[in-house]
Specification:
The chain has 204 residues and is an all-alpha fold. It has 12 helices and no strands. The longest helix is centred in the middle third of the chain and has 19 residues, at 78-96. It is elongated. The model has no long low-confidence stretch (mean pLDDT 93).
């Protein structure tokens, strides 16, 4: 498959879709932790509500965990996540002068942070060449026949072999938008998909 053509079509379909508009590393970190097993249309309103009340690690540490729970109650596992938000904020203050680190290994030391979350922070907050793999990216890249993988970690490794480095930080947001609107898990809208004459599922 022509990767440059694939990306050209996705950029054309979502001209603003390769940036989520969020650049504050702390917001990106916390909102991505909140997004685990929660839809984006639920996560981001809850994150905005939280940050309207507490917007810095210092404020989060001083906040009552019950109030954090109330503010993010719409997201899945909100009680667990509220505790993690407090703990992440504490670690940021005690070990990193309140600043979100910009390297993978250090980010992975935070509770609730896996490779997907760390890559989101690196790509969206620090504009680094990182490729975040969530369920949409994993599903669509396999559905398109780009790779044949079983787990997201393997998908990240294989996609980095296929996509030029300049595309890495855009892959997640573009494929997430495609997965939410067109290439859905069930009943994908193949007839209107911009990639339909490239997709082996349709061409078979």
């Amino acid at each position: 498959m022509d990767i440059d053509e694939l990306m050209r079509r996705l950029f054309e379909l979502y001209p603003e879709g390769y940036t989520d508009g969020f650049s504050d590393p702390f917001f990106v970190l916390i909102s991505t932790v909140m997004s685990h097993r929660t839809r984006d249309d639920v996560t981001y309103p809850a994150a905005r509500k939280l940050f309207e009340r507490f917007s810095t690690p210092e404020e989060m540490v001083r906040a009552d965990v019950n109030e954090i729970e109330t503010l993010i109650a719409d997201v899945g596992f909100y009680r667990v996540k509220a505790g993690r938000i407090k703990e992440i904020s504490r670690i940021l203050l005690e070990k990193h002068d309140g600043r979100v680190p910009d390297d993978m290994d250090t980010l992975l030391e935070f509770p609730g942070v896996g490779r997907k979350t760390a890559n989101c922070v690196l790509a969206h907050a620090f504009l680094k060449d990182a490729l975040a793999v969530d369920t949409h990216v994993h599903r669509i890249s396999n559905r398109l026949g780009l790779i044949e993988t079983k787990v997201p970690e393997e998908t990240e490794t294989e996609l980095k072999k296929i996509f030029p480095r300049r595309y890495w930080r855009h892959v997640n947001l573009l494929l997430v938008k495609l997965g939410q609107n067109i290439c859905r898990p069930i009943s994908p809208k193949c007839g209107i998909c911009t990639l339909n004459n490239m997709c082996p599922k349709i061409l078979l």
